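Lecture notes, part 5. Sequence design as translation. It can be helpful to think of inverse folding as translation between two languages: the language of shapes and the language of residues. The source text, in structure tokens, appears below.
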């Protein structure tokens, strides 16, 4: 297959697909666009005007969970659990992880300390619920890296950056999730899933949007 992944450099949902591709050791082309000023061709093929998009021999797939499942079904090794019930549970917690990413963005985009504390508390509550359903590590289901691990790695990578600006964020990360995060961030596919200056681009992008915590560096 001829695979082209359309990306915005700091998008966590694109990063999920990149990690999956790297775990598969599959050849692909990565095309970056500026979501603030997307090209005409992108708007013509993206139903929601969002990334990632995956072009597969001219056909277009959208939504990161669908893209990752397609890749998992098309290229070995299989990362999703084989048991239907466990696979369905993983799908649910992947969706929960998507919501966590949106909650994390609310923390980043808080305009003042009061809003930051409120959004931090909300994020902490969601992390606590995830912690109660974590199976002990080193990965979500034990020793085997799964598609759900690819889905959560972007959240943890951004959390590490944010802790460099606000050390109090460490207080809302349960210890078992911190161990999971450490394992994921050491994995080669995760380390190689972002551009070399990812941190700088991430901080610059949200700093320009008036982030309370990122403008204090």
């Amino acid at each position: 297959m001829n695979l082209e992944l359309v990306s915005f450099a700091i998008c966590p949902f694109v990063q999920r697909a990149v990690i999956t591709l790297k775990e598969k050791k599959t050849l692909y082309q990565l095309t970056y666009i500026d979501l603030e000023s997307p090209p005409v061709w992108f708007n013509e093929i993206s139903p929601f005007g969002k990334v990632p998009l995956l072009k597969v021999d001219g056909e277009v797939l959208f939504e990161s969970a669908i893209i990752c499942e397609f890749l998992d079904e098309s290229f070995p090794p299989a990362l999703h659990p084989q048991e239907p019930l466990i696979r369905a549970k993983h799908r649910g917690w992947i969706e929960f992880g998507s919501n966590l990413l949106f909650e994390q963005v609310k923390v980043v985009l808080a305009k003042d300390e009061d809003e930051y504390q409120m959004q931090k508390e909300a994020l902490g509550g969601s992390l606590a619920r995830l912690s109660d359903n974590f199976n002990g590590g080193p990965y979500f289901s034990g020793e085997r890296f799964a598609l759900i691990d690819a889905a959560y790695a972007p959240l943890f990578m951004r959390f590490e950056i944010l802790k460099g600006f606000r050390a109090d964020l460490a207080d809302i990360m349960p210890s078992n999730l911190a161990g999971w995060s450490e394992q994921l961030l050491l994995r080669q596919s995760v380390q190689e899933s972002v551009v070399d200056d990812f941190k700088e681009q991430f901080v610059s992008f949200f700093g320009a949007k008036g982030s309370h915590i990122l403008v204090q560096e």
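The translated text above is only one of many valid answers, since several sequences can fold into similar shapes. The two ends are 45 Å apart (CA to CA).
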